[in-house]
Amino acid sequence: MFSLFKRIPSMSTADLQKEGAKEWTVLDVRTPAEYRSGHIAYAKNVPLNKIAGFTKKGDKKLAVICQSGMRSKQAAKILNKKGFDVVNVRGGMNQWRGTTKGGK
């Protein structure tokens, strides 16, 4: 049956931490101020309001993260419609237990 709502795959922050920068291009879709307050070292900041203009370089899989997982889910849907193979990171930075860059 044809579905109008394509389910976006998701992964936990623990899975992302295990596979890390070697496997994934991580897009942090929070605002630049949120990003500066602490982010995954290898994550690239592409705010949600600019995600539609994103162009991918390289062949790594895309993972999208935000603070809680809501904005990243929206971003993943937009990227998916553009033809990208993308995964939403559940729980976002609230669940991230790895090291961060920036912030206090």
TrEMBL record:
It comes from the Bacteria. Residues 20-101 form the Rhodanese domain. It holds the Pfam family Rhodanese. This is Rhodanese-like domain-containing protein. The lineage of its organism: Bacteria, Bacillati, Bacillota, Bacilli, Lactobacillales.
